[in-house]
């Protein structure tokens, strides 16, 4: 079963193949054949979404397939039906399931019980679809990401975790600056080190961004987080002109969005010439089309 659950569970050559296919889909190649004609994708959301929701639906339709949009609160799940039963029942009707969950364990249980491929549309632990779009976007603007230097300044959250996995799988250098109380999971850091990943963690954003090709951040308060003291902890990690000035002169700024101008990033940076945020959003659709194509390739046609 070709689940797309996390970047560290998929061979790096497959991830590269998906990125290359996303580039061809962006050019319009292969769409006239409607490669997913007759296939149905279910999208389940436990949390809000703009990009993931619309880019999956638009992408599936461009491939000739169809989509059923499900809010988890409308399903019998909300009344206590088990995830296992839900997974088996949905597998009778659809060819693929994408789910955005509050807890990673929910996604894992869904995948363990589904008889069709399951795609991670964001959990509290990771956001692999976003990273596929981000690698594609970086490469469009800066060339191959291999050996490039990416800097993260902010919360050690689900996006930071996926950047760590991507650093190993796509072989780039990743400098992470985050507050001591908001570090990425030690298990993940250990995994990256064990794989020979060039992932370096500190608490000083100015050290992290030195000579970086890209500076990346994310919201201070992710969905499901409680903002007890996050605004205070993260204030010095804001990406602004002063921080960007320490990166390479031709560096780019990236953010998965939604962004909060004046908090995680200054308006000057996100709306300035170095920003790739709308390119990332656009490439969500093409990279997910390639993910869907890969997930469904064994059952296609
Ligand atoms: N970046 C991202 O996943 O955005 P949404 O929450 O709008 O889907
Ligand atoms: N870290 C953010 C990403 C949103 C796309 C969140 O989980 O809310």
Automatic annotation (TrEMBL):
GO biological process: citrulline biosynthetic process; L-arginine biosynthetic process via ornithine
Annotated pathway: Amino-acid biosynthesis; L-arginine biosynthesis; L-arginine from L-ornithine and carbamoyl phosphate: step 1/3
Gene3D superfamilies assigned: Aspartate/ornithine carbamoyltransferase
Compartments where found: Cytoplasm
Keywords: Cytoplasm, Transferase
Gene Ontology MF: a single term: ornithine carbamoyltransferase activity
Catalytic activity: carbamoyl phosphate + L-ornithine = L-citrulline + phosphate + H(+)
GO CC aspect terms: cytoplasm
Domain Aspartate/ornithine carbamoyltransferase Asp/Orn-binding: 147-295
Domain Aspartate/ornithine carbamoyltransferase carbamoyl-P binding: 2-140
Chief location bin: cytoplasm
InterPro entries per record: Asp/Orn_carbamoyltranf_P-bd, Asp/Orn_carbamoylTrfase, Asp/Orn_carbamoylTrfase_sf, Asp_carbamoyltransf_Asp/Orn-bd, Orn/put_carbamltrans, OTCase_ArgI
Primary enzyme class: transferase
Binding residues annotated for L-ornithine, in chain numbering: 158, 218, 222-223
Pfam families registered for this protein in UniProt: OTCace, OTCace_N
Sections of the chain in a coiled coil: none
Documented EC number(s): 2.1.3.3
Amino acids binding carbamoyl phosphate: 49-52, 76, 100, 127-130, 284
Task of the protein: Reversibly catalyzes the transfer of the carbamoyl group from carbamoyl phosphate (CP) to the N(epsilon) atom of ornithine (ORN) to produce L-citrulline.
Family note: Belongs to the aspartate/ornithine carbamoyltransferase superfamily. OTCase family.
Matching HAMAP family: OTCase
Protein name: Ornithine carbamoyltransferase
Gene that specifies this protein: argF
């Amino acid at each position: 079963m070709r689940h797309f659950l996390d970047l560290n569970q998929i061979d790096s050559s497959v991830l590269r193949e998906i990125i290359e296919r996303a580039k061809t889909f962006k050019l319009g190649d292969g769409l006239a054949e409607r490669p997913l004609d007759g296939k149905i994708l279910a999208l389940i959301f436990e949390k809000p979404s703009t990009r993931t929701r619309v880019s999956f639906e638009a992408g599936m339709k461009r491939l000739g397939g169809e989509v059923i949009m499900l809010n988890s609160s409308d399903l019998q799940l909300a009344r206590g039906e088990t995830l296992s039963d839900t997974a088996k029942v949905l597998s009778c009707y659809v060819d693929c399931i994408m789910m955005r969950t509050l807890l990673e364990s929910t996604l894992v249980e869904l995948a363990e019980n589904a008889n069709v491929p399951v795609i991670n549309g964001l959990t509290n632990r990771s956001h692999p679809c976003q990273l596929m779009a981000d690698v594609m976007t970086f490469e469009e603007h800066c060339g191959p990401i291999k050996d490039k230097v990416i800097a993260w300044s902010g919360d050690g959250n689900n996006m930071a975790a996926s950047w760590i996995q991507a650093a190993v799988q796509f072989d780039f250098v990743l400098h992470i600056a985050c507050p001591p109380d908001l570090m990425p999971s030690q298990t993940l850091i250990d995994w990256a080190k064990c794989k020979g990943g060039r992932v370096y963690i500190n608490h000083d954003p100015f050290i992290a961004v030195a000579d970086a090709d890209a500076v990346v951040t994310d919201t201070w308060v992710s969905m499901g987080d409680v903002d007890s003291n996050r605004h205070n902890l993260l204030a010095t990690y804001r990406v602004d002109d002063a921080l960007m000035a320490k990166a390479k002169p031709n560096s780019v700024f990236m953010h998965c969005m939604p962004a909060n101008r004046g908090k995680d990033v200054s308006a000057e940076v996100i709306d300035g010439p170095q920003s790739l945020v709308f390119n990332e959003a656009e490439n969500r659709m093409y990279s997910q089309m390639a993910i869907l194509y890969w997930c469904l390739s064994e059952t296609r046609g």
